[in-house]
Design brief:
Structural class: mainly alpha
Radius of gyration: 27 Å
Largest sheet: 2 strands, antiparallel
Number of strands: 2
Distance between the termini: 66 Å
Strand content: 5-15%
């Protein structure tokens, strides 16, 4: 029985510390108290070079997304289909069912 306990204690200790080892590689760590987590930027490891990041920033500056991100505005969604005309949108709204209209209005008004 003693040999079994001696072998069991390290195994249980290892099982309890394994999640902590995985957490050490993340940027966020759990913390007691009201905050719940702490941020550790020194644990961040990027796979990109500085030149790659600067190229992405230049591309965002040229297409206008950098200005939107700096203002906190949402980025436009890029659609693969052609844009609808005003008449197509009006026709879709006239053809919608009463249940779909009610759901749309509730979504827009929050009621």
């Amino acid at each position: 029985m003693n040999v079994f306990r001696l072998a069991l204690v390290p195994a249980v200790a290892f099982a309890f510390t394994l999640p902590l080892a995985a957490q050490a590689n993340s940027v966020w760590h759990t913390a007691g108290g009201e905050a719940g987590v702490t941020y550790h930027p020194e644990h961040f490891k990027s796979a990109k070079t500085r030149a790659q990041v600067m190229a992405e920033v230049d591309a965002a500056r040229k297409d206008g997304t950098l200005a939107l991100l700096q203002r906190g505005a949402p980025l436009p969604v890029k659609s693969s289909e052609p844009p609808k005309t005003r008449q197509q949108v009006i026709d879709e709204m006239r053809a919608e069912s009463p249940d779909a209209r009610r759901a749309r209005l509730e979504l827009l008004t929050g009621g």
